[in-house]
């Protein structure tokens, strides 16, 4: 997630420079045919272009609104994970006692039990974020898309790219739990299952009485719910029929736009020539220069066509880059940083040792 007030203009231009060059080429070819080759029939009336542009603007707006809804829902889900993680840790800290224990445990053993439950929760956070960072066929594939790959190399590197999930989770699980988790498919779900089983064992030993066990189990159910909501966004893309048609309509407008703009600029040039004819020009050179510019005023349509194309295409790309909030882009939910923040908070609550420091992100990018 980018944290400054605005993206640097230089970065935005660098991100879109390939398409800017393409738009300039697409706008130049019709002008050459229209003005130099004298194909004056090669134009489209502006009225149908205006209607098409309005329709495309509505479609782009619809996609951006839907993409933002997916992003904001993902942020609310992970806000719930933050809050519920703290609640879980408070319960671990205060609910597990010797009050009803069948056999009393000493302070060190009690602290070890609490550390085990909290560390296992950190393992769940780690497994969940790795699952959410996995590539899907419909995503931008930031590591393989040239523009996004350049941006990632220049601004940030997600630790999920360099550290395998097994290596990231291993410090938080026992050897038995580690083997059980990776013997099955959904690691995050397996960790919550182990957590539930451990709570039952603690209840059987009398370290947690029935009511407190029920409350802690409800928190685990909430974690399952939040995980399921995250997986719903991750595994169900923005509908492909909307994404495909939106892409085709935007490019149809971009390809036709230069043909609709040229005639308008030529009309402006004709009006300039008429005004020049009404006024006496002091020098012949100035008159010829102004007349030449007026007769070829249609060339000014090139930068304007490229600008309009860039606006529509960039808005479409913004929606496309926002619709998958967990893939690790500069506009996505910073689940890696949030996971580390949660880990620091909950381990401090139980007075744990060797607590990691917050991630140090560069160039105002938080992931």
How would you characterize the largest beta sheet?
Answer: none
Task: Kindly state the number of beta strands.
Answer: 0
The first-to-last residue Cα distance is 6 Å
For the residues shown, what is the average pLDDT?
Answer: 85
- What is the total number of structural domains? 1
Helix share of residues?
Answer: over 70%
Unreliable stretches (pLDDT < 50, length at least 5) are none
Radius of gyration: 30 Å
- Percent strand equals under 5%
Task: Count the DSSP helices.
Answer: 12
Shape: elongated
Explain this structure.
By secondary structure, this protein is mostly helical. The protein has one domain (9-349). It is built from twelve helices and no strands. The chain has helices spanning 9-36, 46-95, 107-133, 146-155, 165-169, 175-182, 187-204, 210-235, 240-278, 284-295, 301-322, 335-349. The radius of gyration is 30 Å and the shape is elongated. The model has no long low-confidence stretch (mean pLDDT 85).
Could you provide a short overview of the structure?
The protein is an all-alpha fold. It has one domain. The chain contains twelve helices and no strands.
What is the topology?
Blueprint: H1 9-36, H2 46-95, H3 107-133, H4 146-155, H5 165-169, H6 175-182, H7 187-204, H8 210-235, H9 240-278, H10 284-295, H11 301-322, H12 335-349
Helix pairs in contact: 1-4, 1-9, 1-11, 2-3, 2-8, 2-9, 2-11, 2-12, 3-7, 3-12, 6-7, 7-8, 9-10, 9-11
Q: Which key phrases capture this entry?
A:
0% strand; 367 residues; 12 helices; mainly alpha
């Amino acid at each position: 997630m980018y944290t400054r007030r605005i993206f640097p203009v230089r970065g935005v231009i660098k991100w879109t420079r390939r398409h800017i060059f393409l738009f300039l080429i697409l706008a130049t070819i019709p002008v050459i045919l229209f003005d130099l080759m004298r194909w004056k029939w090669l134009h489209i009336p502006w009225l149908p272009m205006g209607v098409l542009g309005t329709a495309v603007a509505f479609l782009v707006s619809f996609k951006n609104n839907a993409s933002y809804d997916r992003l904001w829902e993902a942020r609310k889900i992970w806000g719930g994970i933050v809050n519920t993680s703290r609640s879980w840790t408070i319960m671990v800290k205060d609910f597990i006692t010797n009050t009803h224990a069948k056999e009393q445990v000493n302070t060190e053993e009690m602290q070890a039990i609490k550390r085990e439950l909290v560390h296992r929760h950190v393992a769940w956070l780690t497994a969940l974020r790795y699952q959410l960072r996995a590539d899907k066929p419909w995503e931008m594939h930031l590591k393989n898309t040239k523009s996004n790959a350049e941006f990632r190399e220049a601004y940030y590197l997600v630790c999920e790219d360099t550290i395998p999930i097994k290596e990231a989770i291993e410090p938080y699980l026992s050897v038995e739990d580690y083997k059980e988790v990776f013997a099955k498919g959904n690691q995050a779900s397996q960790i919550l299952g182990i957590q539930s089983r451990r709570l039952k064992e603690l209840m059987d030993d009398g370290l947690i009485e029935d009511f407190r066990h029920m409350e802690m189990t409800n928190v685990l159910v909430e974690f399952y719910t939040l995980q399921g909501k995250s997986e719903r966004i991750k595994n169900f893309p923005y509908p492909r029929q909307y994404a495909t048609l939106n892409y085709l309509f935007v490019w149809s407008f971009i390809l036709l736009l230069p043909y609709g703009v040229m005639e308008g600029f030529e009309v402006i040039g004709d009006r300039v020539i008429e005004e020049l004819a009404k006024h006496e020009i002091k020098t012949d050179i100035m008159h010829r220069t102004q007349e030449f510019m007026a007769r070829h005023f249609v060339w000014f349509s090139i930068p304007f066509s490229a600008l309009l194309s860039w606006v529509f295409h960039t808005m479409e790309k913004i929606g496309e880059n926002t619709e998958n909030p967990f893939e690790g882009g500069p506009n996505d939910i910073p689940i890696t940083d949030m996971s580390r923040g949660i880990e620091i908070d909950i381990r401090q609550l139980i007075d744990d040792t060797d607590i990691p420091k917050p991630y140090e992100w560069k160039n105002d990018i938080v992931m």
